[in-house]
Design a protein that fits this description.
The relative contact order is 0.18. Mean pLDDT is about 80; it is low at about 5-55, about 200-210 and about 410-425. About 35% of the residues lie in helices and about 30% in strands. The chain contains 11 helices and 19 strands. The protein has 2 domains: about 15-125 and about 155-230 and about 325-380, 3-Layer(bba) Sandwich (FAD/NAD(P)-binding domain); about 135-150 and about 230-325, D-Amino Acid Oxidase, Chain A, domain 2. The strands form 3 sheets. Strands 5, 6, 12, 13, 14, 15, 16, 17 and 19 form a 9-stranded mixed beta sheet that branches. Strands 1, 2, 8, 9, 10, 11 and 18 form a 7-stranded mixed beta sheet that branches. The chain has about 450 residues and is an alpha+beta fold. The radius of gyration is 22 Å and the shape is globular. Strand 14 and strand 15 form a beta hairpin. It has helices spanning about 15-45, 65-80, 95-100, 110-115, 160-175, 285-290, 295-305, 355-370, 375-400, 410-420, 425-435, and strands at about 55-65, 85-90, 105, 125, 130-135, 140-145, 155-160, 175-180, 180-190, 195-200, 210-220, 235-250, 255-260, 265-270, 275-280, 315, 320-330, 335-340, 345.
Length: about 450
């Protein structure tokens, strides 16, 4: 199942969705207020935040307070690291992040990680089945939760809901948050890393720079968009654009997700709020044409590409497009490490980006709880290498092999049929999507 690419904001809320989610929204607003109060306390209380220009020591500084960064902070506190020795740094306030409506797909394994820190349940739609097919070819595979003895194969939620829940957990634990604050530079010394921050803090320098922050370990948990990143050891431009929108159809099938491969890239529909979150990957020129269509013409094109399994597509929200690529590789030094999208930006096929990132932070938290040392970071890279490499290969292969119109596509259609018939093959695919390589 394809997930919305990371760091791609989209304003896709509907009035009907607002009514359905109003009660949960009231509760989340209360938690947001608590967390924002804690952030103000961090910024204003001299006992928690030393005077500007002074050196501040933390064991672990986490740059990026998105789902991966906050999950790491919460897991560290859960494992016994003193909350006062952890700091989150982010350019956005929690209030800004909590309004982000982009769609994310969480695996069952990711749910288990969020449960560990008390950030579950979330407002979400469960996925009970995943239907995988190839446009114009025989063969398909249907993965069902009943075969794997889990309550759901995955969960479709929103970025804002995740960060609201995790923000409340971090506030209750007493974890410091410096936001809004930007990292201007990073200098590694023998026994620590010094970050130079810029933000709205009083006493900032004339150029906007504030005080330095010193930490034994710095974790980079903010990745950005593919076309804005520095190249890593594995980099490939898929020459695809992901079109993001929310759609409704005349005959939806509850709790079933679709991954349909076309000659230009995968087309995914994730069940959400009675409709579907759409991620349609196409060549850049085709994507530009689709973005320029009016709603009626776009829905007709979507129906032609997807087929009639869900009846007719009847509604679409404003559409956005984002470039897709692979950019992965071990990134860090003796005292710095990258996790999640900062370590590997993947094609959204199979929805593995955030889930791989949460597996990163689960392992990293276990190690850093034993000591914030370079030795722990060395162990982390070794322990995560296999899962990262396998997930990169899986998503990269699916993105490249299925996205063409060669005669070999008929064989790929047969392979989907074989996966559906052969239980162990279907089980392996589901196991990787649920938990990654363990």
């Amino acid at each position: 199942m394809t997930a919305t690419p990371n760091h791609t904001p989209q304003d896709t809320r509907h009035d009907a969705q607002h009514q359905e989610r109003q009660q949960q929204g009231n509760t989340q607003h209360q938690e947001q207020s608590k967390v924002q109060g804690a952030e103000q306390d961090t910024a204003q209380n001299p006992a928690r935040r030393p005077a500007p220009g002074a050196a501040v020591d933390y064991d672990i500084a986490i740059c990026g307070a998105g789902p991966a960064g906050m999950a790491l902070a919460a897991l560290l506190a859960k494992r016994g690291v003193a909350p006062g020795r952890i700091v989150l740094v982010d350019a956005k306030t929690l209030e800004q992040a909590s309004r982000d409506p982009r769609t994310l797909a969480l695996s069952h394994g990711s749910r288990q990680i969020l449960e560990q820190v008390g950030a579950w349940p979330l407002a979400c739609t469960e996925i009970h089945q995943i239907h995988v097919s190839r446009r114009g070819q025989f063969g398909r595979s249907l993965i069902d939760r009943s075969e794997h003895h889990v309550p759901a194969l995955g969960y479709v939620t929103r970025y804002g809901d995740i960060v609201t829940a995790l923000g409340a957990v971090c506030q209750r634990a007493g974890i410091a948050a410096l936001r809004p604050a930007r990292v201007l530079g990073c200098v590694e010394q023998a026994g620590h890393v010094e970050l130079r921050l810029a933000g709205d803090e009083p006493g900032a320098d004339a150029d906007g720079a504030g005080r330095p922050l010193r930490a034994a370990i710095v974790v980079q948990a903010e990745g950005g968009l593919f076309d804005e990143q520095e190249s890593r050891s594995q980099r490939h431009d898929y020459q695809q654009t992901a079109l993001i929108a929310e759609v409704r159809s005349s005959a939806p099938i509850p709790q079933r997700a679709y991954e349909r491969f076309t000659e230009q890239g995968p087309l995914a529909l994730l069940p959400q709020d009675g409709g579907y979150s759409l991620v349609w990957c196409a060549r850049p020129d085709t994507a530009r044409e689709l973005l320029a269509l009016d709603d009626a013409a776009f829905l007709a094109a979507l129906g032609q590409a997807f087929g009639g399994r869900l009846g007719q597509f009847t509604h679409v929200t404003p559409r956005l497009g984002f470039p897709l690529g692979l950019n992965a590789g071990e990134r860090g030094s003796a005292r710095t490490v990258a996790v999640g999208n900062a370590a590997q930006t993947l094609h959204p096929v199979a929805g593995q980006g955030l889930n791989l990132g949460l597996r990163d932070v689960s392992v990293l938290a276990r190690l850093l709880a034993q000591g914030a040392t370079p030795a722990m970071l060395g162990q982390f890279n070794g322990l995560r290498r296999q899962d990262r490499a396998l997930t990169v290969r899986l998503t990269d292969t699916m993105a490249r092999v299925f996205a063409n119109d060669s005669p070999l596509q008929a064989l790929l259609g047969l392979s989907l049929a074989a996966i559906d018939v052969v239980g162990p093959a279907r089980g392996l695919l589901a196991e990787l999507m649920l938990y990654g390589r363990r």
